[in-house]
Amino acid sequence: AQSVAQPEDQVNVAEGNPLTVKCTYSVSGNPYLFWYVQYPNRGLQFLLKYITGDNLVKGSYGFEAEFNKSQTSFHLKKPSALVSDSALYFCAVRDWNNAGNMLTFGGGTRLMVKP
Amino acid sequence: GAVVSQHPSRVICKSGTSVKIECRSLDFQATTMFWYRQFPKQSLMLMATSNEGSKATYEQGVEKDKFLINHASLTLSTLTVTSAHPEDSSFYICSASVVGGDTQYFGPGTRLTVL
Could you give the CA distance from residue A49 to residue A56 in angstroms, rounded to a whole number? Predict the structure, then answer.
């Protein structure tokens, strides 16, 4: 079984400050990890993924995430937040054994960036 | 690349009618498409996995006779909500995976309102 936890329903940060959105996961094998962003009344946009290789993954719009196997975490980060980053962020995991490519999503974290 | 479209983006129908939602991969071939349902301020719930040329695999608790899925080609999957009722009102999102790929790309979603 695979599962994802996003412990914060909402994260508030001031524009220009660094942001972190937390994600922890559980899989039986090696994880494939993803971050998606959702704007109001829109589908999900792919931000970045970790499959293998470097633990620090860089993605779209200046976002990055660090895979930490010992802590089973994949926190999303950005050095300097923008007001336009305000959206709903979803972490997702897939076990590499899952040939069907099925993702399990976390509950989502709403990021609010204030001017 | 990897663009997924959905049509319609918004639909309002009367109780008892059927509604068809289309999901298309515009610039790639997708052997697998996924259908999700999202309630307000909640995460995505996987409804079914659709493989081209075969019957869809439904998640537990999802009525296959209620939510008919057809994946007739490598670029098109359809979800038909039959005899819709107000409790079927929701945001429906599809996603598609490139053949042999590990990332799901999402459509913009369809908001269904059943009166």
Answer: 10
**CA B45 from chain center: how many Å?**
11
The verdict on a CB contact (< 8 Å) between B108 and A100 is: no
pLDDT in tens for each of the 115 residues of chain B?
Answer: 688 999 999 999 999 999 999 999 998 888 889 999 998 878 889 999 988 888 899 998 999 999 999 988 889 999 999 999 999 999 999 999 877 777 889 999 999 999 9
Could you give the CA distance from residue A75 to residue A21 in angstroms, rounded to a whole number? 6
Rounded CA separation B7/B10 (Å): 8
- CA gap B19, B91 in Å, rounded: 13
Chain B residues whose CB is inside 8 A of the A105 CB are 43-44
Best A101, A102, A103 member to test B by mutation, with max B CBs in 10 Å, is: A101
